[in-house]
Design goal:
alpha/beta; FAD/NAD(P)-binding domain; three-stranded parallel β-sheet; 4 helices; binds flavin-adenine dinucleotide
């Protein structure tokens, strides 16, 4: 028996960490609520791009079954970099040829689309917006 099946779990904060955790817990049968202080999902710009690494962010998205949505929203080529001086002397070259099997190394995705992907993957009404966590008290 899955030990978290039907367990009720509260997560404070709907950032990439909380949303991904909620998705993975729901996939394993838990009842999850996320308490997020933002008033709603549109209230603020989410900020700049994130690069995701194979053994952390990408690993989590793979486990969450969200790689197709990720590939539809990431920024192809944004993980490639060259550093040159004014004479075009190359000091660092992290460019690489892409193909279907290896189309990125540390792919970049903007926080806004990433948040949308994760929110859309959750069961309806998982996020309780406009809820700022203040304190925690034990209940008997
Ligand atoms: C400049 C910068 C660049 C970065 N670049 C990268 C990168 O390229 N790649 C990468 O992997 N990581 C990067 N990071 C790190 C990345 O932003 C964090 O690892 C990630 O945002 C952590 O996610 P999180 O969900 O734990 O927290 P957060 O993203 O901080 O989300 C926390 C959420 O909790 C909510 N919240 C906070 N307090 C409360 C409360 N009391 N009650 C209710 N809700 C609350 C907030 O509104 C927010 O939605 C970068 C960070 C910075 C600052």
């Amino acid at each position: 028996m899955n030990p978290i099946h039907h367990k009720s779990i509260a997560i404070i904060g709907g950032g990439p960490g909380g949303l991904t955790l909620a998705r993975l817990l729901q996939m394993n049968g838990a009842n999850v609520k996320i308490y997020e202080r933002d008033v709603n999902r549109q209230v603020r710009v989410q900020g700049a791009t994130l690069d995701l690494h194979d053994d952390s962010g990408l690993k989590a998205l793979r486990a969450a079954g969200l790689m197709d949505a990720f590939k539809a929203n990431y920024r192809p080529g944004a993980d490639q970099m060259k550093v040159l001086d004014k004479n075009a002397t190359i000091y660092l070259d992290e460019s690489f040829a892409t193909n279907e099997e290896n189309d990125f190394s540390r792919p970049e995705i903007d926080r806004g689309p990433l948040r949308e992907i994760l929110l859309d993957s959750l069961q309806p009404d998982t996020v309780v917006w406009d809820s700022q966590f203040l304190s925690l008290q034990p209940v008997s």
